[in-house]
Amino acid sequence: EAGVAQSPRYKIIEKRQSVAFWCNPISGHATLYWYQQILGQGPKLLIQFQNNGVVDDSQLPKDRFSAERLKGVDSTLKIQPAKLEDSAVYLCASSLDALAGTDTQYFGPGTRLTVL
Amino acid sequence: AQSVTQPDIHITVSEGASLELRCNYSYGATPYLFWYVQSPGQGLQLLLKYFSGDTLVQGIKGFEAEFKRSQSSFNLRKPSVHWSDAAEYFCAVARRGYQKVTFGTGTKLQVIP
């Protein structure tokens, strides 16, 4: 079974530029998550999708971050414009069906973003 | 709001010694509890999880954890540590029936020969 795929693995941009990350979850997984992991901290949930609907985006900085999962499969997370404090690893995870209540998340390798 | 505390930022143990990593959570009801491991440059891998039932949970790589409701704790243990266990370990809590996972700040484990 293929795991969660993410691209790119690394990205370096200047502040105020835009950047996009892509995630392809495990086939058949209804729930998709984006996390931000700043160096020295645990992952912080940014947004959670159930199929193509948003379940939770309470910690997503909506003035600059956006995410979509239009067909309920792969997803894109965008930052526009980027700030220095956005430097972090962005992790994507998926699970079969979080709302069913007995689920497990599987994580991708992450995208390391450096904002200069 | 739910929260997770991992009081030890860094732990060093000798290879072959036993290990216990501490985790305390704050949540109003019975939570879902997890331990993940993250090796440098890698994503997170699930070691074990507690949803209900037996409070002693067995995981992969010889790890186990015990849920103690009275102490709001979910400590991770391993009887004999291997050099390959050196990594960062994260405890996490989620709401029942709806996974909004909150992670602790992690404990970095160093294993010395």
Explain this structure.
The complex is a heterodimer of chains A (116) and B (113). Chain A has 116 residues and is mainly beta. Chain A has no helices and 11 strands. Chain A has strands spanning 5-7, 10-13, 19-24, 31-37, 44-50, 53-56, 65-68, 75-79, 88-95, 106-107, 111-115. In chain A, the strands form 2 sheets. In chain A, strands 2, 4, 5, 6, 9, 10 and 11 form a 7-stranded mixed beta sheet that branches. The model of chain A has no long low-confidence stretch (mean pLDDT 92). Chain B has 113 residues and is mostly beta strands. Chain B has strands at 3-5, 10-14, 19-21, 24-26, 32-38, 44-50, 56-58, 64-68, 73-78, 87-95, 98-103, 107-112. In chain B, strands 2, 5, 6, 10, 11 and 12 form a 6-stranded mixed beta sheet that branches. In chain B, a hairpin with a 2-residue loop joins strand 10 and strand 11 (98-103). The radius of gyration of chain B is 13 Å and the shape is globular. The mean pLDDT of chain B is 91. Chain A binds chain B through residues 4, 31, 33, 40-45, 48, 55-56, 91, 93, 95, 98-99, 101-110, and chain B through 4, 36, 41-46, 49, 51, 90, 92, 96-106.
